[in-house]
Amino acid sequence: MEFEKPLAEWKGQVQEIKLSDKVIIGGEQVFPNYSFDGKCSNKPAVAIEINDVFPENWPENLKEIWNTDTLKSPVERAKKAEKEFGADIIFFDMIGTHQDRENISANQAAENMNAILKAVDTPVIVRPDGNFEKQNKIFAKCCELAERQIIIGSAKEDNYRTITASALAGNHFIIAEAPIDVNIQKQLNILITQMNFPLERIIMDPMTGGLGYGFEYTYSVMERIRLQTFMDDPFMIPPMVCCVGQETWKIKEIKIEDEKYGSKPERGINWETTTAIGLILSGANIVVVRHPESVIKIKNFIDSIYQKSDCLQQGI
Amino acid sequence: MKNLKLISGDFTKEIQVKENTNLLYAIQESGLFIDAPCGGNSVCKKCTVFIDGKSCLACQTFVNKDLIVILPEYSNLVVEEDKNHFIEKFKDIKINPIIQKIEIFINPEERISYQSDLEYFKSLLKKAGFEIFIPSDVELLSKISKATHKKNTFTIYLFEENNKYEIVDIIEGTNLKNLGIAIDLGTTTISIALLDLDSGIFIDSITFYNPQIIYGADIIHRIVFAQKNDGAEILQKKVLEELNQSISSLCMKNNLSANEIKSVVLSGNTTMIHLFLGLPSKFIRETPYSPVMQKFPILNSNSFIDIIKKGKLFVMPCVANYLGGDLVSGIISCDLHKKDEINILLDIGTNGEIVIGNKDWLIGCACSAGPAFEGMGLNCGVRFKQGAITEVSYENNKFVYSIAGNSKPCGISGTGIISLIKHLKEQKHIDNRGKFTEKVKDKIDHRKAFILFKKEETFNNEFIYVDETDIDNILRAKAAIYSGISLLLKKLSLDISEIDNMFIAGGIGNSLNINNALEIGLFPRMRKEKIVFIGNSSLTGAIKFLLSRESRDETNDLFPKVTYIDLSNEPSYMDEFMAALFIPHTNQI
Q: Which residues of B touch A181 (CB under 8 A)?
C-alpha cells in the first residue's frame, strides 16, 4: 500500500501586509515552517528599536556597541540601524514623551518622528509613552503630521478609540496590543474594525516576556492565535509583532557580574536571539531587538530555515 | 421612645424606637426591606423615603419625633406569582400529598377498661388501616389522651414512612384543611406558595427580597458574615422572622389558619439552606468544600417557623457545595431526568446553576452571576414590579420604554437592562465591551451615564440612568452564565445544536425577550423555539414534592446521580469567561 502523506487542511490565511517595497510580512497559510502542510510565504522581518531620548538604563556593553554619541541623536541612531545594522524596520519607541520623564510635547514628538521618517527608507513603527491622555494627543498629532505612512501603536482595549480614529484619517497602520490573551486580542480587533478601520491595516502585538520570564505563555497564546487564523476566524488574521529587546535587556541574568553565566556581552545577545527565534517559531512576523549582533544571528537563522524548506517558491 | 409608622404600599407597620435612632437602622430592624448598598453613607441614595411629602435619605435621618414614613413600594412584598402559570403546570399530577389527613370518630363509651389511651388510639387507627409509630412528643401524647376521652370526630394528620405512620397532629373537628407551604429560598428573593394538599389547589403565593441582603449581596459575603460573632444567628433570625410574617400574612389574606399548615418544603441553594437551618457554612466556601450533608433529615417545623406549630419541614437534598436543592427542584420541575433527548436547565439567579443531561446522566455546575439580573447592584435597578422598566425599544430615532403597571417609572429591571444594552449597542452608544462611545455625553456624579428618565418624570424624583459599571455588572453576570454553559458543553464534546431544549428558570424568566438575550450573548445561539421559560423552577419543584409521591421518590433517587463540576478548578474557565465578557462573545475556538 502506498503511503499517503497526511495533510493538515487549513482554511484561513494570515493577512499579507506590504509595509514598503522591500518589506512584506504575513501571508502564511500554515504554522511557521510547516512547509509540508502548505505555503509559508514571507520571511519574518527584524526591527531595531531606537528612542527619542538617551536610553540611560541600557547595559554598558549595549551602549558601547551603539556608541554613546550616536545614542544621543535619534536620527543618527535610525540611520545607523538601517545602514550599518541592517534593520528591516525602525521601531521608534518615544519613551521621552512620558509625563514623568522629559514630557516631550505632542508637537515635538511629531517633529522627532518626521526627522526619523526623512532619515531612513524603512517602514517606521511609532509608539509614544505616557498616560492615555498624553498618548492620545500624540497619536492624533503623529497621524496628522506624518510625512509618509507609519505604523502607530499601541491600541489597547481601554484606549483604542483615538488612535483608531487618527490612524483611519491618516491612512496609517495600527498596532493592537493585548495582554497575552487570545480573547482580548480578538475583542480588540473587533472593536477596532467596528470603527470602520480595515483589518488589513492592523498588526497584533500579543505582548511577550523574555525567555524565562513568561515567554512560554506568549508562545502558546501566539500559537492559539494562529490556530484560530488557520481555522478561518476572520478577526484573527493580522500579522504579529513582538518587542523582544525591551523584555530581554532588562532581566537580571543579563546584568549580573558572574562568570558562571558566561561572558556578559554574549549573554544578552544570546538571550535576545533565543527569545526572538522562539517567537518567530510561534508565528511572529516582526521581532524588535536592540543588539546588532542579534540582528545578524536572527537573520542567519531565518535565512537558513527558509532556504531549506524553500517554501517561498515551492509551497506544496 | 418615639412612634414610627412605616407605610409601604398597602402595608403599614408601627414600631417604637429610641430617640435619635437612625431611620435606616430602624427600618431595617422592623423587618421591612430597604435597599442600602452603600451601607448608610449617603452615597447610593437608594434609601430615599418620604416624610411629610418631602423626600429624604433614611440613612441621614434621625428620629427625634413621631414620624409617618412612606417607603418606596419595593420595600415590602414585591410580586404575586401568576397563579394560572402554576395551575397549568400541576393539572396532570397524580395527587398524593406528603402529609395525609384522615377523620376518625372517637367514642369513649366503646372503650374497654384498663386499656391505655394510646393502645385504644392505636387500635382505632389500625381499624382504619394505619399502623402508627408511638409518638415521642409529650405534648402530642397528651393531645391524644384528651381526644380518646371525648366523643367527637377528630382530624388526624399522618406522615408515612415505610408503610408505618407518624402522627403529626390531631385536631378536634371536621372539614379542616390540609395545607402545605413551598418555599424557594433564594439568595436575593424568596418565594412562598400556599397549597391545599387534599385537592392540589394552588391557593396563593408571594415573592419578596431576602432580608439577609443587607449583610451581603451574594452567598460568599453571607458565609463571611456568618463567620463573624453572632453572624449566623443574625442571618437565621432575619430570614425566619420574615418567613413567619409572610406566611401569617398569606394565611390572613386567604382567610386560612396557619394551624392547618402541616407540611413545609424548603428549596434553595446549599448556602441558604445551611443558614436557614443554622448549620455551619464555613466549609461551603473553603476547602474541602463540603456541605454538612446532602440529604437533610425531616424536621419539626416549629423549631424554625414558629407559627406552624405542629408540622413537618422537608428540605430538598443538595448535590454539592454550590449546587443546591433549588437545582434538584428545577430538574424535578422540568422532568430533565426523564427525557431521552439531551436538554439544558439554566437557573438564572444570583447563583446561576446549569445542568445538562437526560434520563441516563446529568452533569451540572454553578456560576456566580451576582444579583444584577434581579435588579440588585445596579444604580437604578429594581426587581420586576409596578413601575419597573421591563423592555426598551428604539423607534423613530428615540428610545421607547415599557413600564410595568400604570405608574411612574421607579427603576430598571433585569430584562429592561438586557434590552437596553442590546439597543445601546445597536445604536452605537456603547461598544462591544460595554463602554460608552462619544454619542453618550450626559454625566451623573462626574461619570458618563445614559439617562432614561429625568428627575421630574420618575416615582422618587431621582434620575433613572445606567452607567458603565451597571453595564459591566450585567456583562459579568451574562459572561458567568455563558461561559458556564460553553464549558460544560465542551467538556461533554457536545455542540449546542445537539441540545433539544433549553429550559430557563429563575426570577428573570417569563418576561425576558429571547432575541435580546441572544443578541447580548446571555446564552449560546440556538433556535428560538428551543428555548422554554419555566419560571421559578425551584418553587415549582418544591410544590411537586408536596403533592406527588412520584416526585418525592424521584428526588431521593436523583440527587446522588448529578455529577458536579467545580468551575473554579477548571483551568479553561477563565478563558471562557474572558471570551464572554464581550457583546455578544468572542466565540473562541
A: 578
B336: CATH: 3.30.420.40
Query: Do B290 and B229 have their domain in common?
Result: yes
Q: Is B161 domain-assigned?
A: yes
Distance from CA of A194 to the nearest CA of B (A): 8
Residue B588 and residue A157: Cβ atoms within 8 Å?
no
Burial of B175 (0-12, 13-18, 19+ CB in 10 A): exposed
ipTM of this predicted structure: 0.74
Residue B585 within any structural domain of the chain: no
Residue B513 belongs to some domain of the structure: yes
The C-alpha of A190 sits at a distance from chain B's nearest C-alpha, in angstroms, of: 8
Closest chain A CA to residue B589 = A228
Element counts in chain B: helices (H) and strands (E):
15, 28
Contact B548, B519 (CB under 8 A): no
Residues B65 and B208 in one domain: no
d(CA B95, CA B552): 12
Domain limits at B396? 380-461
Does B220 lie in the same domain as B142? no
| B572 close to A (CB below 8 A) | no
Claim to verify: residue B107 and residue B56 sit in the same structural domain: no
**Interface test mutation site (partner B, options A10, A160, A183, max chain B beta carbons within 10 A):** A183
How many domains, in total, are found in chain B? 5
**Is the torsion defined by CA of B278, B281, B284, B287 positive or negative?**
negative
Q: Does A191 touch chain B (CB under 8 A)?
A: yes
Residue tagged 389547589 (cell numbers)? B201
SS3 B386: coil
**pLDDT averaged over every residue in chain B:** 87
Q: All 3 cell numbers of residue B161?
A: 414512612
| B426: nearest CA partner in chain A | A194
What domains sit in chain A, N to C, each tagged with a CATH number? 17-309 (3.20.20.20)
B18 with B163, same domain: the answer is no
The pLDDT confidence band at residue B6, using thresholds 50, 70 and 90, is confident
pLDDT tens readout for residues B480-531: 999 999 999 999 999 999 999 999 988 665 667 888 888 899 888 888 889 8
CATH number at residue B161: 3.10.20.880
B431 touches chain A (CB under 8 A): yes
Q: Which three cell numbers stand for residue B66?
A: 413621631
Q: Using a CB-CB distance cutoff of 8 angstroms, which residues of chain B are in contact with residue A176?
A: none
Q: How many beta-carbon pairs below 8 A join chains A and B?
A: 33
Q: Is B589 on the interface with A (CB under 8 A)?
A: yes
Residue B468, domain member (yes or no) = no
